[in-house]
Structures are given as structure tokens and as C-alpha cells.
Amino acid sequence: MEFIDLGRQMDRIRPSVSARMEKVLHHGQFIMGPEVGELERQLADFVGVKHCISCGNGTDALQMALMAAEVGPGDAVFTTTFTFIATAEVISLLGAEPVFVDIDPRTFNIDPAELQKQVERVRSEARLTPKAVIPVDLFGLPADYAVLEDYCRKQGLFMLEDAAQSLGSSLQGRMAGSFGDCGSTSFFPAKPLGCYGDGGALFTNDEQLAARLRSIRIHGKGSDKYDNVRLGVNSRLDTLQAAVLLAKLEVFRDEIQARQKVAAGYSSRLGERFSVPFVPEGAVSAWAQYSIVVEDRSALQAQLKAAGIPTNIYYPKPLHRQTAYQNLGYGPGSFPQAERISESILSLPMHPYLLENEVSQVAEACLQSKTASPRG
Ligand SMILES: *Cc1c(COP(=O)(O)O)cnc(C)c1O
């Protein structure tokens, strides 16, 4: 069994991928070819925003958005400590300071009440200027935008949604990528919508922000790439990757549906003994991961491995405990929820092509183990 089975997906889409790639080989416009624009239009429609700006990867997407918001030295950017390093790394690379926030242990996403506390603390210390917030839709579940959007607007904070794991998910009918001032995503192969290499995109309804992002994407270009009106980066989505993504978009809605079935199959079997993922009212997850919280994680992981079932730990160390961030001075116990979850979370195989009997097999193997989720 595979943790994420891209082979089964390829068996389904190979003719369409091949035909689209062949077309690119024929016209030869490998950089910013017609497929890039076509994909951007289709993705903007899919997410329900006016503008989609594709780019080289999800990390660049985050960095470009912060560059467009003119984040720099002296600025504080607030984000969850329970995420992939890329979310915070771009803040530091621009000379600003990441201010970490603890999570809601039910959703694993940034806790809006904790965010408010951190913003107030930074304002009262007056060393940094609160500038932006990056909520992450962890494991494919949108963060609590009903509260976060309102809060950021009132506080004058730029909000960047890190939707790297959540494309295809929604909250009260609004698609992930559409929240805040700007949304970003990743097309890394293992993400819900992945290409066959690196890729990323940004989403916004703000015309001026979109224009800045298009300029930043190509070295801060003005009327052409030899007219440079600001400093930018070199981060375009390859035409070949756009072609792959156009083929994958044809089946993406169907895949999101299939993921709901897999998740429901797991939860109905595991829910009695384990704390299974919580999906708030009105939310639909993209199920980038299906993660349970268990008391004796290493025992369960070893037992599943012996049964031929792969698992992964996202994430074994919150960002405030990473060596790279020891300079920020957060000690152990700074963010108790994230620390507790990082010690007990385990992700099970999850992809749209998991068969019913495979879901049962994984669930059975979990139930045969002696461990359960911690009480309370
Ligand atoms: C994958 C990921 C990224 C980075 O995307 P890349 O395309 O790998 O650069 C950023 N944030 C989160 C939450 C991710 O999961």
C-alpha cells in the first residue's frame, strides 16, 4: 500500500497528460506558454476569485505575497507554529520576524484567541510592527476564517492564506485560496492538486495586488522584462507543468469527492477508539492528510509498518522548537497545544484512489493495536 498513490492517478489520466504535454513539445513555448494563462483562468474560476498568478512553487508564492505587501525589517508576521517550515521561512528571509501562535487542538489550525493575545503582546512591546497574518489550512482543512478575516480587517493586518494543502476545500461554500487579501498554494506532487515537479499559485480579488505579483514574478518587470520597476524574483510555472495541471484539473472535483469517502470510511471505523479529524460545521476538507491523535504513537506506527501500512508524522517538531529558530528564544512549553499534538499525531494513508477494502484494512490494523487516543 502507498501513503499517496500517484501511480493509480496516472493510470487514469495518462492519455490526457500525454496529449497536453505533446502539444507543448510541438509549440515550444516552454516559458509562459498558452497553457499557463489557460490554467490561471481555470484556477481563478475554480477558487472563485478574479486573479490567479502561477509561480515556481508554494514557498515562492508565500514570499511573493509578502513582498507585494512590502513586509520587511521591523515587521511582525504572525503564523501558526504547527506547519511546514516554508510558511515561516519566507518571513525571516525578507528580514521580518515570525511571531508564532498556538493551535486549536481540535482543528490543528491557528487559534484566533491566541492570535489576538500575540498581536496585543507585540503591540505593547512596541519593538516590532504587526504587519501580516498567515493562517495555514493544515491537512486540507480551512482555518477559522469567519473570525480571522474580521479580526485582520479591523486590525489592519494583511492576511495571506497558506492554502498549500487545501486547494479544493471550502468553508460555508467559499473555496480555499479565496480568503484574506491573498491566498497561496503549492502544486508539489503530493499536494491535493500536484504537478510533476514544482509549481505554485497565488489568488486574489485585488487588481493592484495581482499586478504587483505579476511584476514580482518576473524580476519586478514594468512594461517588459528589461524595464524593472521594483526588485522581484524569477518564479514562473513551467508550461509543461501547467499542461499537467490542466489534465489533473479535469478529475480534481471528482478526486475531492473520493477523498471525502475515504475519510468517512476511516472516521466511522476509528471514531470509537481514536480521536479522528474534526471538521467544523460548514467546512469541507481537501484531506491532504488524514491524521489521528494517539497515546502510544511509536507502537501503533511500528505495528502498522509490520502490516505493510505506511504512515507519516506531520509534524514531529513545531517551528518554535526548530534549531533554525532557536534565536527567537521560545523555550519548551511556549505553545503547549502544538507541542502536545506534535508528540501524538499520526497520518494514515490518504489519496483519492484508496479502495474500500484498503480503508478497512488500515482501520482494522489500527483497532488491533492496544493504543487509543488520550482521554479528555
Ligand atoms: C508544501 C507546503 C508549502 C511549500 O510549498 P512548496 O511548493 O513545496 O514550496 C508551504 N506551506 C505549506 C503548509 C505546505 O504544506
CATH architecture of the largest domain: 3-Layer(aba) Sandwich
Ends apart, CA distance between termini:
33 Å
CATH topology of the largest domain: Aspartate Aminotransferase, domain 2
Instruction: Count the domains.
Output: 2
**Radius of gyration of CA atoms, rounded to a whole number:** 21 Å
The percentage of residues in β strands lies in 5-15%
Taking all residues together, what is the mean pLDDT? 97
The string of secondary-structure elements, in order, is: HHEHEHEHEHEEEEEHHEEHHEH
Low-confidence stretches: none
Proportion in helices: 40-55%
Globular, elongated, flat, extended or rod-shaped: what is the shape?
globular
Strands of the widest sheet, in order across it, are 1-9-8-5-4-2-3
Top CATH class of the largest domain? Alpha Beta
Question: What's the main sheet like?
Answer: 7 strands, mixed
Give me the CATH superfamily of the largest domain. Type I PLP-dependent aspartate aminotransferase-like (Major domain)
Overall structural class, as computed from helix and strand content, comes to alpha/beta
In total, the number of strands is: 12
Helix run count:
11
**List of distinct ligands in this structure:** pyridoxal-5'-phosphate
